Amino acid sequence: MAGKRSRAQGELEREILAILRANDLPLSGKEILEVFPGDKPAYTTLLTTLDRLRLKGDVEKVGAAARNMRFRATRTDPEHTGKAMLDRLTESSDRRASLLKFAGSLDPGDIEVLRDALIPKAPKADRNG
Amino acid sequence: MIALALTLVAYALATLAAAPLLVGRGRWRVHRPGLALTAWFAMFFSGLFAATGSLAAAVAAALDQVLDAHRDSDSVLGLLGVIALCWLGFGPLGAALFVVTERARPILLREQETRLELTELVHRLRYRTERFGDLTVGFLRYERAFACTLQGLDMDVLVSSGAASALSRAELAAVIEHERAHVDLRHGLVLRLAEVNAACLPRVRAAAEMMRSSALLVELVADDAAARRCGGAVAGALRTLGTLEGDESMLLRAMRLEQRQDAARHVEAAR
Ligand SMILES: [Zn+2]
After folding, report:
1. What is the largest CA-CA distance in chain A?
2. What is the mean pLDDT of residues A11-28?
3. Is A124's pLDDT higher than 60?
4. I need a labelling partner for B119 at 20 to 30 A (CA). Which of A115, B12, B30, B241 fits?
5. Domains of chain B: which residue ranges?
6. How far is the C-alpha of A109 from the C-alpha of A114, rounded, in Å?
7. How far away is chain A from the Cα of B219, in angstroms, using its nearest Cα?
8. A68 and A16 fall within a common domain
9. Which of residues 61-90 of A touch B (CB under 8 A)?
């Protein structure tokens, strides 16, 4: 139980989405659990997560009655195309002038400059001094 | 007048040569990034100003000569000489302006494309919008740790879900403060200027070096600005994201901030 709880919310969402996207037909909660790889989440956790995904617009409910409620990934996958675009953007050369990124906008030369300025006074020497 | 023109030319050339020597190298920049950036800007603009000024002084000096020579003779010839000199003198200025515009155009165009693409991405991937003080922060669904700012979007700052879920609340605030510094200090403009400068002087290594170091310096300046407001959370955020992304430059930036905090603590303890 504790192990299942500690699974990151995002990770669970991603796995469920992956399962739904791999299936053309809508799946019920039980069916999702059956094909769940690795540690299976509790049924209620699964339903809560599905609900969250539904609110985000990633998953839609099929069938009205609670008993035969099924889920499928929303057909258009804007997320996927969006991510491909973002992948391309973060690799593009114009990021220097336009994209000011908190992460990863420095090139090897910059890293060299930083290393050069910071490493000589290693933390240890600093603390002893 | 000729002496003035020569002095200004000499100054312009000196800044061209000295700026990369002073600002383009040395460890001190890592410790005083704001000073380095300011020094570069001061040199750049004063050099530009001096170059334009020298041209004007040279033209004025030449005009003087022509007018002197023709004072007693036919005044039409004198007038023609003046006009020719103006064309000769300001021709280079016009040519320079033309080159700058031409070189800047593709850079600005690419930037506009990026902005359009990001706007599209905001539509597709945004799952939450939040206000942080006066900034609007959009959260994008994207596993990689990522935060950025770009002028011309309806969001001031974009943060990826990968970054948001890895960071503590304090660290997230630190990342946003870092981005705020980019916005407030117009770092987009700084980088654009450095890029246009490098594009106009394609064979000048100093210009390329300047472009590279300006990218590093604006990051360090923004780190420092954020650290003044958020303290150790900035280093924490850099360490978290750097580890997640396997980005050594971020770990080094974290180390730099930690070294500064250590140094500050030593000073405090010595008192
Ligand atoms: Zn930054």
Report:
1. 72
2. 84
3. no
4. B241
5. 2-270
6. 9
7. 8
8. yes
9. 78-79, 81-83, 85-86, 89-90
Look up the pTM and report it.
0.70
Co-location of A66 and A92 in the same domain: no
CA B47 to chain centre: 16
Q: Is the pLDDT of residue A108 over 60?
A: yes
DSSP tag of B32:
-
Q: How confident is the model at residue B27 (pLDDT cuts 50, 70, 90)?
A: confident
The sheet that has A59-62: what strands, in order across it? A27-28, A70-73, A59-62
Q: What ipTM describes this predicted complex?
A: 0.71
Record: contact A82-B29, CB cut-off 8 A:
no
Strand-pair partners of B138: B129, B158
Q: Is residue A68 classed exposed, middle or buried when 0-12, 13-18 and 19+ CB atoms within 10 A define those classes?
A: exposed
A53 and A102 housed in the same domain:
no
Distance from CA of A53 to the nearest CA of B (A): 11
B240 pLDDT band, cuts 50/70/90, is very high
Say how many C-beta atoms besides its own lie within 10 A of residue B98's C-beta. Answer: 10
B197 by Cβ neighbours in 10 Å (0-12 / 13-18 / 19+) ranks as buried
